[in-house]
Amino acid sequence: MKKKFGEKTVLEGVSFSVKMGETKVIIGPSGAGKSTLLRCINRLVEPDEGEIIFDGINVLSKDVDIRKIRARIGFVFQHFNLFKHLTAVENVKIGPKVVKGLSDEEAERIAIKALKAVHLEEDAFEKYPAELSGGQQQRVAIARALAMEPDIILFDEPTSALDPQLAGEVLDVMRELARKKVTMLVVTHEIGFALNAADEVLFFYNGRIWERGEPRELLYKPKREETKSFLKRIADLSL
Amino acid sequence: MLMGTAVSLNVAMGMLLEGAKMTVVLSVLSIILGLLVGLPVAIMETYGGKVLRYMAMLYEGTLRGIPLLAIYMVIFFSMPLLTGIGLPAFWAAVIGLGMRSSAYQSQIFRSTIQAVGAGQIEAAYSLGMSKLETLRHIVLPQAMRMAVPAWMNEYVIVLKDTSIALAIGIVELTRQAQYLVSITGEPFRYYGLAAFLYLVMVLPLTYLAGALAKKYGIKGTGGTSNVRI
């Protein structure tokens, strides 16, 4: 897959796959095309070339109803992007209700289940996003994605806007999802998460997959210079 | 000659209140017409394709660029000559004021529609919502609520501008005062009373605007806390 913004090539030809139940983590310096890649997958951004095969369907083909595909692909944003006029429960309910056409009771049931899955405190259920901490907001956003019962969830730097403690509660939820074999593609700078939750780590550099491998392999014994210096900069794992 | 005729306060107040009633009816119908036209215009400007957008901008720009009095002259005096269809003065007044207000209201709604962040719209699309579903469930509920303070302000302007309808023969509050002045020769008293009645109508509205903004404001957005009218 390739993507250009004007003259600037953001994705230079990237190819990989995510299997059901797998957690794949993408790391790399900013501007490497990581977020763009995620946005291309559900076509928030249109790629220029290539194909994205999701459950046997080419997402980029013209006769695909992208809304049906998006309903099956969860997306968790860096800045949460909760609907500000809706409470936590309503934020989670609205997808099943509007997109799947479920009844209010059914949607409510699913929403509460999803909010419990992300361990949202019960007294926060009826609160508005502005009344929640960043960590709570992001967990609601994850619940919103889960409530659609997606085949895969894309995470776009889900903890970058959070301080370490709040990031921790979000990462705990994500680790739990990984253990439950929820299929995830995660762009993050959290090397710890990559280390203990990922099945494979991809290092993006200059719009390419520069290096890839098992987490321990790639993070402790990177082969290429760029990978080494990147890892050194964000987390010095050597003792 | 009528000049200098005494009018009892009761009779005068009755006349002024009669005028005030017309002022209220005219303003309510106009603000509603303005809403019914202004909101779709705002949606065209923000969500429409190029053609729709330019049409909406042209509509808005034209109506904002012409004085209300001139709009009335066109609707009430020129249109019948051109089209052969004459509107009763009352409806000409409602349409003129309503259309002028629709241009301002479209501006209000356009800015609040745009104030709903792109992030929320992307989130709605990511759930699989269509453009229309996103507009209906995410954008408009927030845009309408954020618009409350500015919209109430627009209503106050519309209410006061009903007075211009006297130019096409509508007997509203200012026209009644003018009439009373012409028969009594006491401008200070009757224009003063009329001004007082405008204030009586407007002041509760500014209070109401604050209360509504508080009630319908979205928690955590600027629309709630910094309302000063």
Sum this structure up briefly.
Chain A has 239 residues and is α/β, with parallel strands linked by helices. Chain A has helices spanning 34-41, 66-70, 88-99, 104-117, 134-146, 164-179, 191-197, 215-220, 225-234; strands at 2-5, 8-12, 23-27, 53-54, 57-58, 73-76, 152-156, 184-187, 200-205, 208-213. Helix content of chain A is 38%, strand content 18%.
User: How many helices of chain A in DSSP terms?
Assistant: 9
Structural class of chain B comes to mainly alpha
- Oligomeric grouping of the chains: heterodimer
Q: Indicate the proportion of strand residues of chain B.
A: under 5%
Mean pLDDT of chain B: 91
* Helical segment count of chain B: 10
Q: State the major sheet of chain A.
A: 6 strands, mixed
Q: Work out the largest interface and the residue count of each chain.
A: A-B, 29 and 22 residues
Indicate the radius of gyration of chain A in whole angstroms. 18 Å
Distance between the termini of chain A: 38 Å
Mass-distribution shape of chain A: globular
Sequence stretches where pLDDT stays below 50 over 5 or more residues of chain B: 223-229
Radius of gyration of chain B, whole Å: 21 Å
Can you walk through the features of this model?
The complex is a heterodimer of chains A (239) and B (229). By secondary structure, chain A is of the alpha/beta class. Helices cover 38% and strands 18% of the residues of chain A. Chain A has nine helices and ten strands. Chain A has a six-stranded mixed β-sheet with strand order 6-7-8-3-9-10, with helices on both faces. In chain A, strands 1-2 form a two-stranded antiparallel sheet. In chain A, helix 3 packs across helix 4, helix 3 runs parallel beside helix 5 and helix 4 packs across helix 5. The radius of gyration of chain A is 18 Å and the shape is globular. With 229 residues, chain B is mainly α. Chain B is 80% helix and 0% strand. Chain B has ten helices and no strands. The chains are: A alpha/beta (239), B mainly alpha (229). At the A-B interface, helix 2, strand 6 and helix 3 of A face helix 5 and helix 6 of B.
